[in-house]
């Protein structure tokens, strides 16, 4: 063999592709560690050992863009569109002019849903429930929310929210992903991607569902609402269910021991790593990471789900339903336990607020579902010193109309969807407590002061977590995407 041929063969053996392929177990392992965000070294440069304990999982950001005010978020999403006129936006004029037609000068040609666009008239209707003033600033709160009313000094109530979507699916999708079209990552997925998790034994993004008694068979929800979109599947929300298996496919089949499972995962990881070296698909490494997370969750999930050791006064605090798995109260208690374990984003969905008819009876039941437990969650976090670095959010995808959908009687009415103005509240770190932000007109139909768009809300949420919403991006199909799309402004007036 000629010298020239030997040199050429050696060059082939020493090229980058060959080097990476021959060191798959070393470089591949480091690559997996990088994907997982695992910390292999202490600050002093020494190698970490098992005795050092969990160090969490890093996100794409090496550090926040600015100092964060909070570490975690608990988002109490009220699916279906709670009526702000029955809960927080007190409008006595609607009772004074009950039954009169909505003036065209107020409606101003706003588009309506197909459920009321065919009505001959739009009779104004005020709330059948009373309002009283509470707190240092005399905040108006409905009699439907006695527990919430007592904690208004801890809340920032935003009465001037507005959105672009008028129907449930696009409106909920817009709030959760920043787009009315399906396929984008949800808020929790963006946070998992950007910031990672402080607990390597639990996912950064968890989801809890409950069905309200106001309209038990109301508007459904879809798993894509907590999906990862075009981000790696490692960042999708993990749903905790009120069932024997709280996380699907987590438990091992009968007859599989811990050591056997460990051996299976190790062999599977080796095969997947070879596949990754051959094809370079990063989703393969995401799958490895998911297997490893599931393995660790087999111990951590049962521990955090089990609330039997909670003292009796805590159950009384959250309400009688707190002992019934799957209820809103039980999920609020579970949210606090997940927050204690440093889960980054805890999303609760409570269904049943879509009250097009029989609203007075339906909303009374629905409010009873959530009032005590929501207030208890804020109070519980506060007494544990956790409210300072936790943000609690309460609200739905849009509000309800000031006119009755269908027949208006002395005791009964319904309300259609209303995206032009509605109410949400927030409590916790970085938010001014005890204030009401924004205002609507006397008819409760249009915003007159300090409008807050959905993208503004999302930008503010990210800001509190130390993220500049314009700088957390992901390049996909030739374009850089972000949660707030091409809009959004931080609402500085509500920041502490």
UniProtKB/TrEMBL annotation:
Q: Which domain of life is it from?
A: Bacteria
Stretch forming the signal peptide:
none
Cite the Gene3D superfamilies for this sequence. Answer: Alkaline Phosphatase, subunit A
Name-wise, this protein is Tat (Twin-arginine translocation) pathway signal sequence
């Amino acid at each position: 063999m000629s010298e020239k041929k030997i040199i050429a063969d050696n060059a082939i053996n020493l090229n980058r592709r060959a080097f990476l392929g021959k060191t798959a177990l070393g470089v591949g392992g480091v690559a997996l560690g990088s994907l997982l965000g695992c910390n292999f070294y202490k600050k002093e440069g020494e190698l970490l050992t098992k005795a050092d304990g969990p160090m969490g999982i890093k996100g794409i950001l090496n550090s926040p863009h600015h100092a964060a005010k909070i570490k975690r978020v608990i988002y109490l999403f009220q699916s279906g569109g709670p009526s702000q006129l029955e809960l927080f936006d007190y409008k006595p004029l609607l009772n004074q002019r009950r039954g009169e037609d909505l003036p065209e000068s107020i409606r101003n040609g706003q588009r309506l849903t197909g459920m009321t666009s065919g009505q001959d008239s739009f009779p104004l209707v005020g709330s059948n429930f009373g309002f009283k003033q509470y707190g240092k600033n005399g905040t108006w709160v409905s009699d439907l929310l006695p527990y919430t009313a007592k904690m208004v000094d801890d809340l920032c109530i935003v009465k001037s929210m507005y959105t672009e979507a008028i129907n449930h699916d696009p409106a909920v999708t817009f709030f959760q992903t920043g787009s009315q079209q399906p396929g984008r990552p949800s808020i929790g997925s963006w946070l998992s991607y950007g910031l990672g998790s402080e607990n390597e034994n639990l996912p950064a993004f968890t989801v809890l569902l409950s069905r309200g008694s106001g309209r038990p068979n109301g508007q459904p929800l879809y798993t894509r609402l907590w999906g990862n979109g075009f981000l790696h599947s490692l960042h999708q929300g993990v749903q905790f269910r009120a069932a024997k298996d709280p996380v699907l496919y987590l438990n091992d089949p009968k007859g599989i021991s811990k050591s056997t499972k460990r051996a299976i995962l190790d062999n599977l990881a080796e095969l997947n790593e070879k596949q990754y070296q051959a094809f370079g698909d990063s989703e393969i490494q995401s799958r490895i990471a998911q297997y490893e997370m599931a393995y660790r969750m087999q111990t951590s999930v049962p521990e955090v789900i089990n609330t039997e050791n909670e003292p009796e006064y805590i159950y009384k605090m959250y309400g009688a339903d707190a002992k019934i798995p799957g209820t809103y109260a039980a999920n609020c208690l579970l949210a606090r336990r997940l927050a204690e374990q440093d889960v980054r984003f805890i999303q609760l969905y409570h269904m049943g607020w879509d009250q097009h008819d029989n609203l007075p009876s339906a909303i009374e039941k629905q409010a009873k579902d959530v009032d005590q437990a929501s207030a208890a969650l804020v109070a519980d976090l506060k007494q544990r010193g956790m409210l300072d670095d936790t943000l609690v959010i309460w609200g739905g995808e849009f509000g309800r109309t000031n006119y009755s959908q269908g027949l208006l009687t002395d005791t009964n009415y319904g309300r259609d969807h209303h995206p032009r103005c509605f109410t949400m509240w927030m409590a916790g770190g970085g938010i001014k407590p005890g204030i009401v932000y924004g205002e609507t007109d006397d008819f409760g139909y249009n915003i007159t002061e300090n409008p807050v768009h959905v993208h503004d809300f999302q930008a503010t949420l990210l800001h509190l977590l130390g993220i500049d919403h314009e700088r957390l991006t992901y390049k996909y199909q030739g374009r850089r995407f972000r949660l707030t799309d091409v809009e959004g402004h931080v609402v500085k007036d509500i920041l502490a």
